Amino acid sequence: MTGAAGVILAIETSCDETAVAVLRGRGELLAGEVASQVELHNRFGGVVPEVASRNHLLALRPLIEGALGEARVRPAELAGLAATAGPGLATSLMVGFSAAKGLAVVLGKPFFAVNHIEGHLLSPFFGGAVEPCVALVVSGGHTLLVEVLRVGDYRVLGQTRDDAAGEAFDKVAKLIGLPYPGGPEIDRRAKGGDAKRFSLPRSMMDSGDLAFSFSGLKTAVRYLLPKVNLAEEQTVADLCASFQEAVVEVLVAKTMRAARRCAARLVTVSGGVSCNSRLRKRMREACGAEGIELRLAEPALCTDNAAMIAFVAAGRLERGDISALTAEISPNLALVAG
User: Fold this and answer.
1) Torsions phi, psi of 159, nearest 5?
2) Both ends of the chain: CA-CA distance in Å?
3) Judging by DSSP bridges, how do beta strands 111-115 and 133-138 pair with one another?
4) Pair 257, 210: CB distance under 8 Å
5) Distances from the Cα of 156 to the Cα of 82, 84, 166, 273, angstroms
6) C-beta of residue 157 within 8 angstroms of C-beta of residue 258
7) Model pTM?
8) What dihedral do alpha carbons 169, 175, 177, 183 form, nearest 10°?
9) Host H or E run for residue 59
10) Which helix (H) or strand (E) holds 284?
11) Which tens digit of pLDDT belongs to each residue from 143-163?
12) What's the whole-number average pLDDT of the chain?
C-alpha cells in the first residue's frame, strides 16, 4: 500500500466543530486543526443544524489545506482518508464525509468511515496499544459504559435512557441563564459552591443495572428554580455544585460497579464531559480506593476532534480494514450493531 509512512488525513464534522487532523502511524500527530462554532451558536443557546452545516462548508477547505501544509504532506502522499460516519447531525456529517470520500476517489486512496463514539472510546490509548478495560464515554450526546475486549470487540454494558450527561449540563445551564456551552460554565461556577445545599436526585443509582437517566435531574432543577434567587451569585454557585455532584456521583458509582462486574483492572474515561474537574477528581479517588488503574483521555482529545478519528483509521489501515466507497453516513450509528 502506498503512502507517506501510513499518513492519514481525517475529518470530523459530526456536530458544531470542524476538525481536520493528519496522523502518521498511530501516534505522531503532524497537524490538528479545529474551527469552533461556539460563538455562532451561543446566541441560540444550543446548536442549530443549518448554521452548523453551512459553516462546515465554509471552514473545511481552508482547514484541510492548512493541516496538509503544517504536516508538510502532499495529498498524493497520503495513505488514506477518514471521516466520521456517525452518530451526529446528518447535515453536518455529510459535509466532512463527502469531502473525505471524494478525496479518496480522486487520489485513489483507501477510505475509512469511522464511528464517532469509537473515536472517543479509544482516545485514552492515543499513540499506544488498546488494552482491555471498562470505558465510560460521556460526551454531549452520549453516555455509555463499554467493556473493551480488543479493538473492534466491544460490549455495551449500559447507556442513558434519555438525556446524556452533557445534554443535562447544557440544558440546566440554560435554565439557570448561563452561556452555551453549559458544561464548562457549570464546572467553573461549582468550584465556589456548596454541593450539599440543594438535595437533587441521583437517578437510577439503585436500579441494579448500568443504565443512566438524567432527564429527571434536569426537571428537578427546573422545579427548584422558582424557590431560589438566581440574582445571588452564591446561590448560582451552590446550585451548579449540587447539580454537578448529582451527575458525577452517578457516573462514578455506575462505572465502578461495571468495573467490579467485569473484574476490570483498567478504567478509561473519555468524551467532552470527561474534562469536568469534579468528575476527574472523584474518578481518581474511586479507582485509587479499589486499586484500579485509571486512564483519562487528554483534554485535547475529549471534545470533538479529528485526531481520534485518525487514530481509529490508522489501526484499521494496519489491519487492511477499508470501508467501501458505497458507505454512507448514519446519524444514529450505534457502536455495536444489533
Assistant:
1) -150, 175
2) 33
3) unpaired
4) yes
5) 24, 20, 19, 19
6) yes
7) 0.93
8) 0
9) helix 49-71
10) helix 277-289
11) 999 999 999 999 999 999 999
12) 94
